[in-house]
Design a protein that fits this description.
This protein is α+β, with helices and mostly antiparallel strands and about 475 residues long. Helices cover about 50% and strands about 20% of the residues. It has helices at about 1-60, 115-125, 185-235, 250-300, 305-330, 340-350, 370-390, 435-440, 445-455; strands at about 75-80, 85-90, 90-95, 140, 145-150, 155-165, 175-180, 340, 355-360, 365-370, 395-400, 405-410, 460-465, 470-475. The protein is rod-shaped.
Length: about 475
């Protein structure tokens, strides 16, 4: 069991750790992507700002030699309509990602008059048909962003480049490429990734440790219940109970249910022990009487009381049959599902009995169940009524809605209100029926109630109109009887 608890703790810890790990990976990925996107956007903004500063200088006619190309050691290229590099950062040694690999400017061809303007217009149209035409000395609003690398004064870095077109009066349309370093983006992303690679395992370890401790604490009452149940099993002491924690949670409810089960089991065992003791006591008397008669007959055959021996044998046989039926009922035997006419069964049970009258509807009053067991109920009720009646016993059978009702009334002394439940207990006989010869073993009414309950009905006792006892058996009709699992 301890291994089971350890396994439960291990599974709970593993599950919690995996869930947190998945959540951390998803959150970390989202953070890294967002961080990278923001930093790339900032780098693009910086590159565009640098490119527009140079484009502004070109728009006002600043010569190539006077352009601010070496501010902050960022790579800058100025390319004309023919793709010729006309200006670049001074220490630029190598560049990629702009579409122009040249790093050394070439002299621009002179352009005069309208031919130059026409050439500029044609070159502009051929260069990018989708780009909106620019007015003289106008900086384009649409920019192009790309990623690449550049080597400046021996240092190679990754850059984000922004391309800004500018229309000049005398030099045609130029394109300014300016880059912003991505070192900050790489550094921030790498730092965040390093923190995550170090912090996530530590966090997962903390989650696993806390989950292990919490799970062990939560399962500690279960372990107490297990130990107590093991002790109860070893000692067979059903009076013991498992500890109930004061947490008012599922474990507390489990302990409460376990104690209720133990109480029910203890009650059942005690009832079974009492039943065995009472049965042994009841069986001892007829067996002893029968043995005495047989021993006398063996020594003095002429003294054999054959009638008494037969009576004791019959009584012993009936008691054994009653005990067998009670054992079958206690075992949960399901009654048959046959259709039984209670009116006909009552007339059959009353046949041959003196002073028993059956009245009621001549129609069929049907129930679903065991004909033999229901006949046993009616026979037991009639036996009990005959035993206590002064003159007459009345049996009535009627239909009350979906319920079949059988009433057995006598004109005897009746049953005191305090004893109306006790008489249905096994081996119980009231003061006026203590004699085993006259009152039986005290199983008839117990059997009758058990059979009634097994058929989904009830058996109760009330005052009869004539002053005696009225036993009322109520059973669901053939269509209304619910299924019972026993």
């Amino acid at each position: 069991m301890s291994r089971l608890f350890a396994s439960v703790r291990a599974r709970a810890t593993l599950a919690a750790t995996l869930v947190v790990a998945v959540a951390l990976v998803a959150a970390g990925t989202a953070v890294l992507l967002s961080l990278r996107s923001n930093l790339l956007g900032e780098a693009g903004t910086q590159a565009e700002r640098s490119a527009r500063e140079v484009a502004t200088e070109l728009a006002v006619g600043t010569p190539y030699a006077d352009l601010s190309l070496d501010v902050d050691d960022r790579p800058v290229q100025v390319v004309d309509d023919d793709g010729v590099l006309v200006a670049a950062s001074e220490d630029l040694e190598r560049i990629s990602g702009t579409g122009v690999d040249a790093v050394k400017p070439q002299p621009a061809a002179p352009r005069d008059g309208e031919d130059a303007a026409a050439d500029d217009a044609g070159a502009d149209a051929d260069d990018d048909d989708s780009r909106e035409p620019l007015e003289p000395s106008e900086i384009g609003e649409r920019i192009t962003v790309s990623d690449g690398s550049a080597t400046i004064d021996g240092d190679k870095e990754d850059y984000r480049f922004a391309a800004v077109p500018v229309k000049t009066d005398d030099r045609g349309t130029l394109t300014v490429y300016a880059g912003a370093p991505l070192s900050a983006e790489h550094g921030a992303v790498n730092t965040a990734l390093t923190v995550m690679l170090i912090g996530f395992p530590l966090l997962l370890a903390v989650v696993a440790w806390v989950t292990w401790l919490v799970t062990r604490r939560a399962l500690r009452p279960v372990e107490g219940i297990r130990r107590e149940m093991a002790a109860i099993t070893a000692s067979e002491d059903l009076a013991r109970r498992v500890p109930v924690p004061g947490t008012h949670d599922e474990v507390a409810r489990l302990a409460t249910t376990t104690n209720e089960t133990l109480a029910a089991l203890e009650s059942s065992v005690e009832r079974q022990r009492g039943f065995v003791a009472d049965a042994s006591h009841e069986l001892r008397s007829p067996i002893a009487s029968l043995r005495t008669q047989l021993e006398v007959a063996a020594a003095h055959p002429e003294l054999l009381d054959l009638v008494g021996a037969v009576a004791d044998t019959v009584r012993l046989q009936r008691l054994a049959a009653d005990l067998l039926l009670l054992a079958r009922l206690d075992a949960g035997e399901r009654p048959a599902d046959a259709r039984v006419d209670l009116a006909a069964l009552a007339r059959e049970a009353a046949e041959g009995r003196t002073g028993v009258r059956v009245r009621g509807d001549e129609g069929v009053v049907s129930v679903a169940g065991s004909r033999g067991q229901l006949g046993r109920v009616l026979a037991n009720l009639l036996d009990n009524a005959e035993r206590h009646a002064r003159t007459v016993v009345e049996v009535s059978v009627r239909q009350d809605g979906d319920t079949a009702v059988v009433a057995v009334a006598d004109d005897g002394a009746g049953v005191p209100a305090a004893d109306r439940e006790r008489i249905f207990e096994r081996f119980v006989r009231l003061d006026d029926a203590r004699s085993r010869d006259d009152g039986g073993a005290g199983l008839g009414l117990a059997i009758a109630r058990d059979v009634a309950m097994r058929h989904g009905g009830t058996l109760t006792v009330h005052d009869a109109p004539a002053g005696g006892a009225l036993f009322e058996l109520r059973l669901p009709g053939a269509r209304a009887r619910p299924a019972r699992d026993g």
